[in-house]
Specification:
Layout lengths: L2 H22 L2 E7 L6 H21 L8 E7 L4 H13 L4 E3 L3 H14 L3 E2 L16 E2 L5 H15 L8 E6 L3 H4 L5 E3 L2 E3 L2 H8 L2 E7 L8 H8 L5 E5 L4 H10 L5 E4 L6 H7 L7 E4 L9 H13 L7 H18 L7 H9 L25 E8 L2 E9 L3
Parallel strand pairs: 1-2, 1-3, 3-4, 4-5, 6-9, 6-10, 10-11, 11-12
Antiparallel strand pairs: 7-8, 12-13, 13-14
Amino acid sequence: MNRFGIWLVTVFLVLFCVAPIVAAKTIKIGGLFDITGDTGLVGSSYAEGVRDYVRYLNEEQGGINGTKIELLDVDYVYKISQAMAAYKKFKHEKVVAILGWGTGDTEALSPLITKDKIPYFSGSYSEQLTDPKVTPYNFMVGTTYVDQARIALKFIKDTWTDKSRKPRVAFIYNDTGFGRSPFFTVKFQGYVFPGAKDYAKEIGVDVVAKTIISLSARDTTPQLRKMKKADPDFVICQETSVMATILKDAQKLNLRTKFFVLNWAMSGEIAALAGEAAEGCYWTNPFCTWEDNDSGVEQAKMISQKYHPRKVQSVNYFQGFTTMKVLAEAISRVKGEINGPAIKAALEEMTEFDTGGLTVPISFSAKSHKGSMGLRIYQIQKGHFVPVKRVLLSR
């Protein structure tokens, strides 16, 4: 064989060997989801939103800047030990970012996330996960639980008409990091993060009861009877799907108390399970609902209808969808190699990113990883989520 022939064979072999490697290159992202655990009712919809946005990007947009996304997701059934095992898998697979879930597991993973420099968006909106001095690689799309509880308290105070006394408020929560996060002071990695209980005192609202109800409770009447003795005007709840049981049991006990629930405690599914017992319930929601009609909401509904014809999605679907959308936007802005530090830098330069009404505009900085500084307060009226107030917070 002459030199030209040898050269042709060499070129052919190089192209044959290299081409599949180039074609196989993907942007790997970890997904830590609760599908079948204690928060599975809301977690499964969240996961579906993430998966659908990834599928849309890959099938309709060719990925991110021409590179497909590979979502490696795990159902960790809301157990911290399984979250740790999943994280080891993600690290071994060299993911460049992770979409996580609960408060306890996110807190447990945060030192590893910081050490390994992997940007991490969790479904937990706990205040202590937003300070870059404490958790430099944790980012948050939803409004924090503390901010939600403060907004609820401010709404109660501002709409209170009885000048003879202060409004009386109870807290209902589960005895976990997630449950306690909105209301009580949290000490985390040497830093102190005040809860809404202090804010209530500051604005003149009396906290008259603190009631613990498990995420998996089947009968909440004993706890509600005890709370009834304190006679609160309002109760602010940090729960998930057990909220349907709480509302039905409250109706059976003929409680006069009005319910104000934070984001995870309400959805279309939860409202349907509660039935007429949910009527009049207020809800702090940093995201949209299926009944909203902004441009970003219409896009999400269109994508959902394509993959799940005739299915009406809950708010939790939009939460997962939006979180993946924000992460994908940051990745698209990276110049050069896509890795954790580069994605972090892109996120910290994101200012007023318009999600099309899925949320308020999202901003991050090197000083704060609170993406959302606002929400809508909804009320269930005749079975529908009706927006009653839009609240924007200052940074």
